[in-house]
Amino acid sequence: MRVPHIYTPTKRRRFVVELSAGGFMLLYAQHIGAEHCAFLRQGPFRRRRQQQEKGSPMDPVHIIALSMGAAWASGINLYAAVFMLGYLGATGDIVLPPDLQVLSDPLVLLAAGFMYCVEFFADKTPGVDTGWDAIHSFVRIPAGAILAAGAVAEVGPAAELAAALVGGTLAASTHATKAGSRVLINASPEPFTNWTASVAEDLTVIGGLWVALNYPWLFLLALVLFILLMVWLLPKLWRGIKALFARIARLFGGGKEAEAPPAAPPPPALDPPRRAPPGQKPPGET
């Protein structure tokens, strides 16, 4: 259904309102042209890609959001972050920085997808997820630093080193928060809490990266709030973990103090010497 000629200020400028299943779209038909109208129909990913292909680089806010977003997501679910960024780069939805374009390689996508499937099940098994997090303490943190540095490599060596330091610290913090909360969650006998936490983490990584790529200012604000939450939460998690391990140690006897040996009985009291009656010698004398 089309309602033409709603507003016609001049012959060269004519607005047409098109009613479609997707909603209302305002087409500035003669003044803008069909090419720009097609550009308006595209999503934010493809718009940014076209702008970058025309030579306009990413602005500093987008670079910082991509760098810190990749590091933040790596500490929670590294393989989901790598697969998402690589897939968006391979499909042309985004243009990754030169040092991160390797994520779009089919071999990298295959490895990240396979490892994500393994983590999907390991992360939802109580007890196994804690061991998985312990192993990935040596994987997520350096990977987060590498991704953060790769996002700003075009800026310069100083920015690359600074991003690696901040990104590695951010990845370590998010990893510690995830691993510590999982230890406490595993103390619950039912598995549903563990499954819910794992699914929530996966969705948080995907949603957080999407916000970082589309709304960088919003992501950076949420990241600041998340860091404040971690500063408040990590000491509580540490105290809770220490109390949990102390309880386990007492349960298996490792936390009991060595019992002191029973005290020796006191020596028997000696009878006082008896005095001999007058005129008699004491006993034992001759």
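Above is the first protein from milestone M3; the second protein from the same milestone is given next.
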Amino acid sequence: MGQPSPISLPDFQRIFPNEEACRTYLYAARFPEGFVCPCCGRCGEPYRFKNHPNMLRCRGCKRNTQLTSGTVMQNSKMPISTWFWGAFLVTSMTPGMSALQFQKMLGINRYETAFNMLHKLRAAMVRPGRDRIGGEWPVEVDETFVGGATQGEGRGRHHKTLVVGAVELRPRKKAPGPDPNLPSGQQRPQHRGGHGRSFIAGRLRLMVIPNRKQETLEPFVRDHVQPGTEVRTDGWISYENLSKLGFRHEAVSVKGDHAKTDQHLPMIHIVFGNLDAWLLGTHHGVSPKHLQAYLSEFVFRFNRRFWPMAAFVSVLGIAVQTAAPTYAGLYRGAWEHPAG
């Protein structure tokens, strides 16, 4: 994008000291090869107006284009610099931020505005056309229920949401980057992998699902895992046709045995535990209607944990090519959160 990635608050203030700097960065991100009119397709520098700095007018057809149109910032009354600050804070803070924290940090008057901005940024955390995981690495697939206990409705009743996940297993020596928990320059300790194992979690995918039927779980695996990958699951009947779909399926009937689960599907259950802790610790629980957006944020952070400061550039890069929800769409349920 022609700009370095900020790695600290002083760095951010140096790179984006004012609204004009943010506007220049956004223009370069939207039009890396120069301005192209979305109406007539003409290439070339547009007319600019001092009193309307976000307006670009084509020199050919004379039609106007807003700098933020077609991005998650479209139709927003917030300054572009506020969006940039928000994106930096959300992506650089390891546990993320609740909407209330976001509102206080950016000095936003209304909670609803902060809530809407955060969901728009979460929409920019799902890269269109992202790769399928697996390939040379095995993938663990399993389901879990997300949500708190239900009281006063009888034993066995709950309103939890069913979530399916898939995570790669990689040898620790094949970690894609430096350990994010170590200070810069410090050597990686010579010990076995996380939780006493010699492997780590690779890329992750999570999605809200309505049930555990075969017609639900098979498309998830097919859409998110590369053909030919070794896929490890429990003995649930809905996975029995994965071998016919081109996967090397390895199933073990765990039947609630924690020892078997820890041996056959260790990493996906560590992920599920981290997800529960993050939802409760950072957001104090979320509604089923918006759970998919939070899953997408968790996946975004998880997959970029080796490059935490590059996440800011990733969000802005996706934000300029992603449609975002409106406030009305979020509350009426018309907006469907993209799966992470």
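Note on the second protein: The chain has two domains: 9-30+68-123+327-332, 139-178+192-305.
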